[in-house]
Amino acid sequence: MNMIVPLLSLAPNERGIVVDLRGGSNFRSRLYAMGLAPGAVVKVLGNYPRGPLIVEIGGTRIALGRGMAARVLVRKL
Predict the structure, then answer these.
(1) How much of the chain exceeds pLDDT 90, in percent?
(2) Which of 14, 24, 32, 44 has the most CB atoms at less than 10 Å from its CB?
(3) Does 2 or 52 have the greater pLDDT score?
């Protein structure tokens, strides 16, 4: 089941591979600078109903706003 879903829909401890970033050039360059680029493996550490999504990319923990995380598409692993 290689479903492509928004990063926001992954539960804690689920992993995915970034497929696409839905946003303008500023949005893309900001995420690229954090290591969140197509092909990157992302693990969700925390996904709370209110507040940021906590993810791990290459050993680095990053907090993403919910709106931003909704525009990152991943393929579930």
Answers:
(1) 82
(2) 44
(3) 52
Name the pTM for this structure.
Answer: 0.89
> Sheet containing 60-64: which strands, arranged edge to edge?
4-6, 72-76, 15-21, 41-47, 53-57, 60-64
* Identity of the amino acid at 69: A
Separation of alpha carbons 48 and 17, rounded Å: 21
Q: What residue type is assigned to position 34 of the chain?
A: M
- Between the alpha carbon of residue 67 and those of residues 1, 17, 23, 49, 59, the distances in Å are 25, 19, 11, 12, 23
Question: How far is it, in rounded angstroms, from Cα 68 to Cα 1?
Answer: 25
pLDDT in tens, 22-32: 989 999 999 99
Residues 76 and 16: beta-carbon distance below 8 Å:
yes
